[in-house]
Amino acid sequence: MAAKRSVSVLRPASNALGTTYFRANCCQRAQFFTRPTFIHTSRPRKFSPAAIAPVRHASSGSDPEKLAKTGLYDLHAANGAKFVPFGGYSMPVQYSGLSIIDSHNWTRDRASLFDVGHMVQHEFSGPGAEAFLQRITPSSLSSLPPYNSTLSTLLHRETGGIVDDTVITRLPDKFYVVTNAGCRGKDLAYIAAELKAWNDSNEHVEWELLENQGLVALQGPLAAKILSSALDGKSRAALETLYFGQCMYATIARTDAMVLVSRGGYTGEDGFEISTPPYTTEAIAQFLLDSAKDDLRLAGLGARDTLRLEAGMCLYGHDLDDSTTPVEAALSWIIGKDRRTSGGFHGDSVILQQLKKKSEGGGVSRRRVGFIVEGAPAREGAEVVNEAGEKIGNITSGCPSPSLKKNIAMGYVQDGMHKSGTEVGVVIRGKRRKATVTKMPFIQSKYFKAPVNK
What we know:
It comes from Lindgomyces ingoldianus. With about 450 residues, the protein is of the alpha+beta class.
């Protein structure tokens, strides 16, 4: 367990906040104005003085004493969190007096604050960084502007299978990459091996693992209003023109706490992911909560899972895995246009062939789709069958949708059965239930996107 440290916190007199915080053990997903960078020192940064569905989790049988804790663990516990093992961390699934459905609906109507500090942050720099990342992912990073992000995937060399899904952000002098906590061991081994092979014969790349950053996700229709009120004047003005997939450095009002704010998230709502300096995560989270008492609540993994499924977002280890390619996973859009002709990334021979028309020998045998299921909700592992009862696929995620009041699911079906409106069956507890293949996302996304020039 990390040592506790004292932090001087600048807060309005009416806001009571303790002064002790746990050091964050790991960090999370951001996407992302000036040069300030993350702090890698062991010293705390001080504030200036002044006035329904089962949740999937890794290592369910893990010894609680061996689980890591994020920098917000004490805050969760003080708010009556129920913890579960997730990606090697003890994470809140929900809070006392607030059901998963309540948290879900609160996020859709107002705003919620999620702890995503268990995710893994990396920085890649040096003359070969861009080319290296374009080798292990299918992204067109050469055309990605600074302070912009793209969803991508790490790929296996021969098969093009997905090692992990990731977000890659270009900053002026480096790339900021975030990967999943549940894949930490696998990802670190993969990157280490790939980097060693690369640096032996290519322009040098430096890789830094950012162990002590915190990260929270502020999501919901009131997220922008809440965050704006917490920023200083300059940052508040910049926030007004920060669009989905972009980021900026910002300062929390009346403090010297510099945070990295990225507009985006995992819920389908407008929102932000806020990467925080070491030891300030709890202070910043509490400051946000106190500044919007009637509109902002903490939310856990339970609501995060139902929200992301409604938004059509994948969960690695369930909807994506090592045997799945981006084309099969309906993620062809992450493959850059120039990469489709030039290749040069792991698994390109497989993936580029899959992108071709069937008449050219291309295509895939299965595709990821959404389902609306009648009767009982479909859960992971349920078989998808055709009219004759023959298996044609399987469910990878499913739950009752609090927003739609319908049972929704995600999974894979045979190519040809993937078109929207196709009727299939899902076997649930031995009984065939009617299901319809449906486009995703299941709900309309509410991202704050840049105006389209006509």
